[in-house]
Amino acid sequence: SDLRQMLATKSVENIQFLPFLTTDANNLSWLGYGCLKGDGTLITINAIGAALQTLYILVYLYYSPAKRPVLLQVLVLLAVVVTGYCYFTILVDTGMRLTHLGLFCSIFTITMYLSPLADLAKVVRSKSTRCLSFPLTVTTLVASSSWTLYGLQLHDPYITV
């Protein structure tokens, strides 16, 4: 719905950028975890998710009147992803790589779910839910519940988180 709103209004007004950015970081992290673990479900879902989030970021950047802060945040995300990749491939022992990456992914997931708190603060200040997407909230609840059940089924504590 946020993408549809950006395209219809040709504006990013009332749309927070941080959720797009953290969700992209989350998808990229879990994609790496899925590749390392050899889990086709994680690979497929997070590759699609990363592609969609990157599209949302590009559309947001296109319609954003203040491109510099958006680009800076994207560059910080890229720096974190590249640093993480280097850390996991160079510094972490192969036997511990999956554990360390799972913890890293769990932290990113928690960050992703915390990012809408910026919207919540805005809702409280303005006393309006205009900037809060109900469909996104419901979809997030369903998706997170699905991942929790999948993690429990696999006995994978990182996916469960």
UniProtKB/TrEMBL annotation:
Record keywords, A-Z: Cell membrane, Golgi apparatus, Membrane, Repeat, Sugar transport, Transmembrane, Transmembrane helix, Transport
Question: Which family does the similarity line name?
Answer: Belongs to the SWEET sugar transporter family.
**Main localization of the protein?**
membrane
Entry-linked Pfam families: MtN3_slv
> Can you supply one Gene Ontology CC term for this chain's record?
plasma membrane
Q: Has keyword Membrane? A: yes
Query: Which GO MF terms does the UniProt record name?
Result: sugar transmembrane transporter activity
Native organism: Notiomystis cincta
Q: Which residues form a coiled coil?
A: none
Q: What is this protein called?
A: Sugar transporter SWEET1
Q: Where are the transmembrane segments?
A: 43-63, 70-92, 98-120, 132-152
Where does this one sit in the cell?
A: Cell membrane; Golgi apparatus membrane
What this chain does, per the record?
A: Mediates sugar transport across membranes.
List the membrane topology term(s): Multi-pass membrane protein
